[in-house]
Amino acid sequence: MDDEKLKYQIGENIAAYRKRAGLTQAGLAEKLNYSDKAVSKWERGESIPDVLTLMQLAEQFDISVGDLLSDPNELPGNPGGLEKAMSQVSEKALKRKANKNVILGLSSTLVWFVALLVFVILSSFRVLEPYSWLAFLYAVPANAIVLLSLRSAWHDFRWNQGLITLIVWGSVLSVYVTVLVVFHYNFWKIFLLGIPGQIAIFLWFRMFRPAKGAPEEKENG
Question: Of 5, 103, 178, 195, which has the most beta carbons under 10 Å away?
Answer without folding.
Answer: 178
